[in-house]
Amino acid sequence: MTETTPPRLFLASQSPRRQELLSQIGVTFAQIDAPIDEVRGDGEPPLDYVRRVAREKAGAGWLAVAAIPGAVVLAADTEVVLDGRVYGKPASREEAEAMLRSLSGRTHQVISAVAVMNAGREQEAHCITTVRFAAWSESSLQRYLDSGESFGKAGAYAIQGRAAAMIDRIEGSYSGVMGLPLFETAQLLRAFGLLTQI
């Protein structure tokens, strides 16, 4: 009888939020870096873009660990979408302010995709969550920008941070808005033998 190597999970992400969320469901993993160019193609639908980026991150991560027996790579991407426009991570305070002004008092979508890959296969799942912001007052907006929380966050806000006080309602996955939809992630990890039922 041939012994099989137990699967070993690698999270292809530098995000502390994704690391925290993955730990939350009792998964043991190592973190690796898998940088890619996140550029939306001309006319590429937002959902297709988010799914593609998650797959490309997983592929880049796989290249780093392919020689490790039993290696499995998990990667994810999350973007905020309003009126067909994708709001990624702001590059400046001005860009963050413009994003938040656009989202103020309106309902937007947050698309999160997860891709899992090993030597023999790749699977992907995604979720779309609807988020409604209350209208930001000028003073609240400037205080939020002053906090620095906007940077490194799709749509220039963190649902798990101060911006939660401005979110009127959410329909969908809270963890998906944070950056890693745990229900979908758990399903994928079970399919790869990395998680049992809770």
UniProtKB/TrEMBL annotation:
Annotated site, Important for substrate specificity, chain positions: R17, T78, Q160
Cofactor: a divalent metal cation
GO MF term (any one): dTTP diphosphatase activity
EC number, as in UniProt: 3.6.1.9
Keyword terms, alphabetized: Cytoplasm, Hydrolase, Nucleotide metabolism
GO cellular component, one term: cytoplasm
Catalysis: reaction(s): dTTP + H2O = dTMP + diphosphate + H(+); UTP + H2O = UMP + diphosphate + H(+)
Gene Ontology terms describing biological process: nucleotide metabolic process
Protein origin, superkingdom: Bacteria
Protein's cellular compartments: Cytoplasm
Active site (record annotation): D77
SUPFAM superfamilies the UniProt entry points to: ITPase-like
Gene3D superfamilies for the chain: 3.90.950.10
Enzyme's top EC category: hydrolase
Physiological role: Nucleoside triphosphate pyrophosphatase that hydrolyzes dTTP and UTP. May have a dual role in cell division arrest and in preventing the incorporation of modified nucleotides into cellular nucleic acids.
Stated family: Belongs to the Maf family. YhdE subfamily.
Name the record gives this protein: dTTP/UTP pyrophosphatase
